């Protein structure tokens, strides 16, 4: 069992931005010191609660301070970015990390970002595919390039000066490129199948109900087999909101009382999904009326909290419902209480993870005979 970290950091609107960014960086450094395998952060341009505006810039600030952890863009919102800039900046970051980079990508889910970049009414999934395909073509191609698309064209034919290196975009440190990771947020996501067929790996989002998270593994297997690849439970990352404290009552209060960063997170996300007509992500039954999907309903189903023993039992129970994933991703939250925020990460690594590893020791990996029925 591996343990990683993923934050789309939602901070109180009245908290100083400098303090929030400092604490976000400290969380990544703490994860590195605790032996977390990977750490990801999201990015948004038009959100005063989610204040990391460039995942590449944020991770670059950590490149020479982290030692072992793999850092991941989580995610670059491809329709909002020019593929040449993505190719160049991700390649540079991969060199800064000397190969400790995962390349997380998505169409982006914040509609105000889509509006400000002018693609609110465009086919953003088509833009996403064109952007990532163009990035890969840049890395595998030769300057001056000749890439023509519906949304972007890439060429340096008129200005290339090869003898001085002008006109060519750098390739990544990793050959042929960093591992590509995608966040899966929809029940029965066909995107998971398409990603897996190309050798990309999914992170099942922390805000997806366990019932729907379970739908991702069969689709991942299907995609791997289409691509001639062998699926592994270790490659299936499942993110969860986890509040671990030294005792049950402290954990319950920090996870659920007014002022809780977990409540702040879901109140923000609930509002965004409700306004975007996407409350179905929170529904056990897709025929539920929207008015029955309350914030309390969401909190009851999506936050794991307790002391290390209780949290371990809840995660093992989650695996019984979702499937035998072997890569748990701890979802990061604001450190409203600095000590409790740190403690949750520390206890998860030092107390919960060893228990999970012991409980899952010797479990077989995926076998061809376990292909789910279609």
Describe this structure in words.
This protein has 374 residues and is α/β, with parallel strands linked by helices. The chain is globular, with a radius of gyration of 21 Å. It has one domain (2-244, 322-348): Alpha-Beta Barrel (TIM Barrel). The chain has helices spanning 17-34, 55-60, 83-96, 111-116, 124-140, 190-197, 210-213, 216-226, 248-256, 261-275, 295-302, 308-322, 338-360; strands spanning 2-7, 38-41, 70-73, 76-77, 101-106, 147-148, 153-154, 180-184, 201-204, 237-244, 303-306, 327-331. Helix 1 runs parallel beside helix 13. The mean pLDDT is 96.
Largest sheet: 8 strands, parallel, barrel
Tell me the count of domains: 1
Rg, nearest Å:
21 Å
Spans of at least 5 consecutive residues whose pLDDT stays below 50 are none
Could you tell me how far the N terminus lies from the C terminus, measured between alpha carbons in angstroms? Answer: 28 Å
CATH architecture: Alpha-Beta Barrel
Quickly count the helices: 13
Structural class call reads alpha/beta
**How are the strands of the biggest sheet laid out side by side?**
1-2-3-5-8-9-10-12
At CATH level 3, the topology is TIM Barrel
Give the CATH H-level superfamily.
Answer: Luciferase-like domain
Name of the top-level CATH class: Alpha Beta
Mean pLDDT: 96
| Helix content estimate | 40-55%
